[in-house]
Amino acid sequence: MDGTALVRRAIAGERGAFGRLYEAHVEGVHRFLWFRVGDAAVARDLTQDVFVSALQGLPRLDQPDRFGAWLLQIAHNRAANHWRSVSRRPVAAELDDVGQDAGRDAALAEDPRHDLDRGLDLRRLGEATRRLTADQQAVIALRFVAGLSLAETAEATDRSADAVKKLQRRALVALRQELERGEAAR
Predict the structure, then answer these.
(1) For the CA atoms of the chain, what is the radius of gyration?
(2) Is residue 102 in some structural domain?
């Protein structure tokens, strides 16, 4: 079934339609929030809040074809509210922790040395990502962890596509510099 049709059915109040939307999006929302807050338990709580808000706001959703981006905009706002409430700078989860329960064994190579190298590379990437600004981390998370398009990321962050493109570029340049700094220090 088409995702937009399912959203329309959920808006119309069809029993079970929102549950199917939840099943289709919960992993991505949780992965995004885990990346943003760095704590699995907090990410689970925030994920629950996101879906409660989505269920409550669903009748006001005027673009059913943008459901995924709308959901991640809610998640982005929940993460920002979380960090405002604890009054400290967000710490991103280690990239090798993100989605580790979702078929990680299937993705591992046959050679354990490759897995070790991959883990070290992801750990360095996670450490470098945590040194980016909060806005840069959010764009990296939305684009590369949640897999949103440029337009969807712009919508989720209430920025123009051009602003997101520039922020993404600055984030990737800063990330490259952080990784090169780390390499030089080793």
Answers:
(1) 18
(2) no
Encoding tokens for residue 129? Answer: 């990502």
**Hey, what amino acid is at 116?**
L
Helix or strand run (H / E) with residue 41: helix 40-57
CATH number of the CATH domain containing 54:
1.10.1740.10
Q: What is the pTM of this model?
A: 0.64
How many other β-carbons are positioned within 10 Å of the β-carbon of residue 41? 9
Domain membership flag for residue 124: yes
Convert the pLDDT of each residue in 26-69 to its tens digit: 998 998 898 888 888 999 999 999 999 999 999 999 999 989 98
Q: How many domains does the chain have?
A: 1
| Domain span holding position 158 | 3-93+110-185
Q: Say if 162 falls within a structural domain.
A: yes
Q: Tally DSSP H helices, then E strands, for the chain.
A: 9, 0
DSSP, collapsed to helix, strand or coil, labels residue 78 as helix
In a domain, 146, yes or no: yes
Q: How far apart are CA 170 and CA 35, in angstroms?
A: 19
- Residue 23: enclosing H or E segment and its boundaries? helix 17-37
Q: pLDDT tens digits, residue range 61-89?
A: 999 998 998 998 899 889 888 877 765 44
Of 174, 177, 138, the closest CA to residue 156 belongs to 138
How far is 127 from 179, CA to CA, in rounded Å? 9
- Please give the Cα distance from 115 to 121 (Å, whole number): 10
